[in-house]
């Protein structure tokens, strides 16, 4: 404390000068409107810069919260879109209900021929095997293993993966498979040459399984091999998804999947 007092006393002339200078500036500004306006202008500019910087920092730290809110909103929209969707086929009315839940990818492989992902939801969150996983842009894969808190997903970038897909606005279906090469492209096999198809056509989920709803986006036709075989096209599909950087995903539960599978098994007996 004594050092502080000694420091003030040793610099008292400077302090007195600064106090008088500030008081003089105040008197000049207070008695002159021009100087007042200039000071206000400078003060406002300085304040606006400070608030702008503060707002930018605040917005940065709010990004995570805003992103989570967007995921929740997207989740709600998907549930509204696919729940109680009615499909009429002649005299048969089928009511399919899908429930979507959000998850995050915590591990992702795409450099092998058989790639898998890990998501941060498990059986305690209501996740089971053979549930579909998608992003906002397309199909990610199918759950093959489940623990209490996590699940393993067979990526569509897996040579053993086969996804039922179709040409949008068409009744022609095929099997979507990966050849182990380019992670941005898959092949749609078994589409007969009687189907009308052109470069740029949209490829969507076929809805012929109980895992994925019909018409989920997958990608677009980027190449057609007319010489692939005598009866079928060789179709290359450019994915909507960037499978190397996807983080936020949705798990799909078809609440009637078991019932549908049981009926299919009876047909195959």
Automatic annotation (TrEMBL):
List where the protein spans the membrane.
Answer: 12-29
One biological process term in Gene Ontology: regulation of cell shape
Q: Which residues form the signal peptide?
A: none
Q: Which NCBIfam families match?
A: PRK13922.9-3
Q: Which residues form the Rod shape-determining protein MreC beta-barrel core domain?
A: 105-253
CC annotations in GO: plasma membrane
Organism of this sequence:
marine metagenome
As for family, the record states: Belongs to the MreC family.
For this entry, the protein name equals Cell shape-determining protein MreC
